[in-house]
Every structure is written in C-alpha cells, then in structure tokens.
Design goal:
Layout: H1 3-13, H2 57-60, E1 67-68, E2 71-72, H3 87-100
Antiparallel strand pairs: 1-2
C-alpha cells in the first residue's frame, strides 16, 4: 500500500542506489480484445470453483469454512441442501449473501473482505 516505500525497497533489492523518484504521466492504449478469449474458450465458474483446479484458493486465503455455528456451513443458516448446486444457483445464492444481505466474507470464508 505504500508506493514510495515500495520503490525505495525495490531499488535497494536490486542493488541500486536510491536517490528519490518521480512519476511521469503516461497513457496506455489497449484493444477491446485484450486478454479476452473467444466465447468458445471462456471459463465457467466450475473451472475454478466446485472442484476446479485453475487456482489454489486455499493458498490465497479463500478456503470456505467447513462449519459455522457448529453445523455444516450452508446448513448452519439454511435447511440442509445439497452441496452439489448447479452453477447458476450457487452464483445467485452467493450474490444474495454478498450484495443483498451484505454479509462479511468471514461468515463463510477464513478471511475478511477488504476495507
């Protein structure tokens, strides 16, 4: 979060003498297609979630809790429903908890949302 300190430490880290820095205003032009795959190659939620292996969510701190209130995670607040929800149902439920109910991520995950 401290850019000035990061620049100073970065210079030190590569063995350069640090004598201050300035920022230059720049512009970057990118096509609308930048890093967007064709729809045939687009990822679905399950490529990463629900057993997908594209990201190591545990290493990133996104591990879901197994329990809440000493009950299985979802069953702690809801009737015991299947853990194998269709992708579109999971997305709706997640959005409702985050957007509508404004629950902190730590209700279901082992971290808090950023402030």
């Amino acid at each position: 979060g401290d850019v000035n300190l990061a620049v100073e430490k970065g210079a030190e880290g590569v063995g350069w003498k640090y004598s201050g820095h300035e920022f230059a205003e720049t512009e970057r032009y990118m096509g609308l297609f930048h890093e967007v795959a064709p729809k045939e190659q687009a990822l679905s939620c399950n490529d990463c979630h629900n057993g997908g292996d594209r990201l190591d969510f545990a290493a990133l701190g996104y591990t879901p809790k197994d329990t809440y209130n000493n009950k299985p995670l979802c069953a702690s607040c809801h009737e015991d429903e299947s853990n194998e929800w269709p992708e579109e149902y999971f997305k709706k439920v997640h959005a409702k908890h985050v957007t509508d109910k404004k629950l902190d991520c730590n209700k279901c995950h082992i971290f808090n949302k950023a402030n």
